[in-house]
Design a protein that fits this description.
Blueprint: H1 9-23, H2 31-51, H3 58-66, H4 75-78, H5 84-104, H6 113-123, H7 155-168, H8 175-189, H9 196-210, H10 223-236, H11 240-261, E1 270-271, H12 272-275, H13 283-291, E2 298-300, E3 303-306, H14 308-319
Antiparallel strand pairs: 1-3, 2-3
Helix pairs in contact: 1-11, 2-3, 2-5, 5-6, 5-9, 6-9, 7-8, 8-9, 8-11, 10-11
């Protein structure tokens, strides 16, 4: 499988700076870090399943993951009317994440096809009868995609190539590039009857965690852009948009950790609609720069935010060009 694209250096360098900053904040075993990781796991499970059509709210997802009750009602009663498959997808995810972390933390371990099948078996347990087995038919539609997955009898060949890419990184890709390429290639192969998107995001995170990045969340509010950038690769061979999207998701996860850990001297994040008033540019202009990764920004819900310092720095750099 060929190398698709390289991450622009200005994005890569900015992310590395944040990664180093997170590493320097103290022990990753601190209680504060553990609480953030618990929150981020809920966010990952909620968003990953929501992207696949789950009707569960974040609160309902948290109830399932924590095994809590609502008043005198048990979880099944509290979730009456919810589709069983959606509840099971939430219940299964923590065990799948545990397997991802177990593999990731063993840097010398070479992942196998069996591991990927086991990951699928855990994630899709009781949801589909073929959990843990490659599909044996071609009559499937990939929602929102503009490609046709390979024929089912070619899946083992393509999966062997993918496993080689995961374990050997033959093009010497940087971690985020490597993770994004594995994600895309896995989705293209579409080896399972269902659950491919969930497994792609878990495999992506396996490589990120192995390289000391936090478990990265792709937010369901970003689903249209997520699918659009995948489709651009399918139709046009434009991998850079997808790569930048994944990089920005990694960066925003780092921002979440740093924001939760920093209590002093933290710059105030403001919406572009406010910051744009002090510039010659519109909020839409700043939003476009943020989406392209040209400026450091975070997205809360559907609102892009950054600091006045980021805006001032960008304007100063442009005035020198």
């Amino acid at each position: 499988m060929a190398k698709y694209a390289s991450l622009p250096d200005f994005i890569h360098d900015r992310i590395l700076k944040k990664k180093r900053k997170l590493s320097s904040t103290g022990s990753l075993n601190s209680d504060k870090i553990k609480k953030i990781e618990e929150r981020m796991q809920i966010d990952f499970v909620y968003n990953s399943n929501k992207i696949e059509g789950s009707t569960l709210s974040r609160g309902e997802t948290e109830l399932i993951l924590r095994g809590m009750t609502v008043g005198k009602k048990s979880i099944p009663e509290a979730l009456a009317g919810k589709e069983l498959g959606h509840v099971l997808a939430a219940q299964n995810h923590p065990s799948a994440i545990d397997l991802v972390k177990k593999i990731a933390f063993n840097n010398t371990y070479k992942i196998t096809e069996h591991d990927i099948k086991m990951l699928h078996k855990i994630a899709m347990n009781r949801i589909i009868a073929t959990a843990g087995s490659y599909r044996e038919h071609d009559d499937l539609a990939v929602h929102g995609a503009s490609f046709t997955p390979p024929l089912f009898y070619d899946i083992p060949k393509h999966m062997k190539e993918l496993v080689h890419l995961i374990n050997n990184n033959p093009d010497e890709l940087r971690p985020i590039e490597h993770a994004a390429q594995v994600h895309y290639d896995f989705v293209w192969i579409h080896p399972f009857e269902d659950g491919n998107g969930r497994i792609a995001r878990l495999l992506m995170n396996l490589l990120l965690v192995r390289n000391y990045y936090p478990f990265t969340v792709i937010k369901q509010v970003e689903k249209p852009k997520y699918l659009r950038t995948l489709k651009e690769m399918d139709a046009e061979g434009n991998f850079e948009s997808f790569l930048i999207f994944i990089a920005r998701s990694v960066e925003q996860t780092l921002d979440t950790y740093l924001s939760a850990l920093e209590t002093k001297g933290k710059s105030k994040f403001l919406p572009f609609s406010i910051l744009a008033k002090g510039t010659q540019h519109s909020a839409d202009y700043w939003g476009l720069l943020a989406r392209k990764g040209r400026i450091d920004a975070i997205k809360e819900g559907k609102t892009w935010k950054t600091t006045k310092q980021v805006i001032d720095t960008y304007l100063a750099e442009q005035s020198q060009n």
